Each structure stands twice: as C-alpha cells, then as structure tokens.
Amino acid sequence: MIKYNKIYNKDFLDFSKKIPEETIDLIVTSPPYGIGKEYEKKIPLEDYLSWSTKVFTEFRRILKDTGSLFYQVGTYVGEKGVHYPWDIMLFPLFVNLEFISRNRIIWIRQHGTHAKHKFSNRHESILWFTKSHNYKFNLDGIRVPQKYPNKKGYRKGKLYGKFTSDPRGKNPGDVWAFRNVKHNHEEQTVHPCQFPEDMITRIILATTDPKDIVFDPFIGSGTTAVVAKHYNRRFLGCEIVEEYVNIANHRLKGEPDKNNNFPNLKTLRHYVDLTGEDIAKFTYSRQVGKVPTPSKNSRIFSENYHLEKTIERITYEAENPRFKGECK
Ligand SMILES: C[S@@+](CC[C@H](N)C(=O)[O-])C[C@H]1O[C@@H](n2cnc3c(N)ncnc32)[C@H](O)[C@@H]1O
Prior knowledge:
Elements lengths: L5 E3 L3 H4 L8 E6 L15 H18 E11 L1 E3 L5 E3 H11 L3 E9 L14 E8 L44 E2 L20 H11 L5 E4 L6 H8 L3 E5 L3 H12 L7 E2 L2 H11 L7 E2 L18 H17 L9
Parallel strand pairs: 1-10, 2-3, 2-9, 6-8, 9-10, 11-12
Antiparallel strand pairs: 3-7, 4-5, 6-7
The structure holds S-adenosylmethionine.
C-alpha cells in the first residue's frame, strides 16, 4: 500500500502499478525530455513518444473522474537543431486517450541562452487536461489584480457611473510570467530545472480542495510537495534520482543538516524567521555571497511585474530594430 505525504525513489512506470485506480485529484509535473540533461539519457523521438503513451495511460487510470493533469514541457531539439515543440508532439497522445483539453498555458521568460541560428526560446508551455467535464476550477482562489480597478461605465445603462471591474480581481489568463528558478532565485537547489513555487501554487489552488491528493510523478527537488504541504493538500511524489529525493525531503523538513546547511535560501530564511537564530551560522547549497541575506532583504517581484516588464521589453524591441535598412 502506498503512503501519502511521501516521495518514493522509483521509476514512475514501476511505481505507478502500486497506485490504485481513480485516487489522484491532481497530477502536476514536468517530465524528463530525453534530451540528455544531467539526469537523463538522450533517447530517439519515437521511443520517447511510446514511453509517453505508457505514462499517460497510467495517468488516466490513477486520476479521479473530477481530476486534472498539468503537463509542463519545452522543446525537443533533434538532429541538426531541428525544433520539435513537445506540446504539439504530445497533444495527440492525450486526445487519443480521451483526455479533455482545457488550456494551453504559455510560460514566458525574460532571459535565456541566445540562439545563433534561430530565434531564442523564450517560452515553454503547460497543457491542462481533465478526465471529465465534472472538474474543479476555483477561480476565486487565484484571481489577480485588475489592470484598471477604478474604471467606471461611461455608456448610459445599468453600469453607468459604476465600477466595471470585478473588485475581487480578474482571471490570470493563459500567459504566465513566473520567474524561472535560475541565477539568484531564492528557491534554487542543485536541481537544474525546478518549478517556481508560485506557479505550482496557482495550479494547486485553482484545481484542488484542502486534503485532496496532489501527485508529481517526476518530482525532482520536491517543489510540488512543498507547495501541496503548505496549502494543506496531501502529496505523493516519485523520482528516480536518489540525490533529488534527499533534497526534496530536506526542503520539506525545513531544518539544517548536520553541517548547518539548507537545500536553498528560501528554506534557510524561513527557518531563521521562525527560530530567531543568527543567519550567519548557516549556509545553503548554491550559496552566492559570503553570508546569506535574510528575508527582509529579499527582492521578490510579483508575477505581474515580470509580465509587464517582459511585455515592455518585447514592445521596445519590436519598435526599435537594431537595423532600420530600407526595403529592397
Ligand atoms: C524536469 S525535472 C522535474 C523537476 C521538478 N519539477 C522540480 O521542481 O524540481 C524531471 C525529473 O524527472 C526525473 N526522472 C527522470 N526519469 C524518471 C522516471 N522514469 N521516473 C521518475 N522520475 C524520473 C529526473 O531525475 C528529474 O529530476
């Protein structure tokens, strides 16, 4: 029998056999891409697609009828740099298994490597599927501020002179700008491609209720479990690399190890905020400066800030091409 609130050090397709049918409320994950990252082998595209079909068949079996699946993917780069967007390649597999598509969310980034022979990648996507039409979507749990909260109706009619925007905030839309966990992000562990916690928070709050079961079959450094625990959901995780399972458990525990080290700056800051201990006594993996900075000095900007900055930047770049040559 599997236990909840636990991360298993297993291969997903072996582990999934232990999960009973229709028990999971939400699956949220980012899979290995088979492109030769440090935790995986490069595998041919056909093999990857047949592995994916087996994985999605298991997802369908273990999801409750009211359940949701969020699958976050980027691109597969084939021979000679040929570009295959994973969401386009995988979408037919989901549809063949009768998953019902709800959204294709575009996750944009301000930064990344600069390509030389094509446009630089600045987005990934998240496919949202449900198993039936009887699914959960709690919009009130995830509203964001209105752009023009003080706008009033100006046409004669019922709304004339009244506020036209919902004071509770608006739907966040399907373009998300959560900061990627790189560089000096306070959540960064030694894992190379973590989810940002705020992105998983939105997904969990929108599609689950307290005590629901949230499963990440490729959980890496444990982000999904950390967020699920924080919001009083039960979690279940699976991860093939033991080192990542240890990091995930360390994040969940939130205490220093025997060397007074933490898996990331966020966990360290949280610990000293709670205990009042001197932050200079501790270190964290991927430490940048000599002494960790406390949470009062942290500079964390909202998703909206990143979204607006990105749009400002893209608009500026479109309006100011470096070369304004005449058309020939
Ligand atoms: C894209 S990363 C997920 C990172 C995670 N979202 C986080 O926040 O840290 C994919 C993870 O899947 C793991 N993995 C690869 N193949 C696996 C398999 N067959 N079963 C379970 N985990 C696997 C990798 O070790 C890697 O940590």
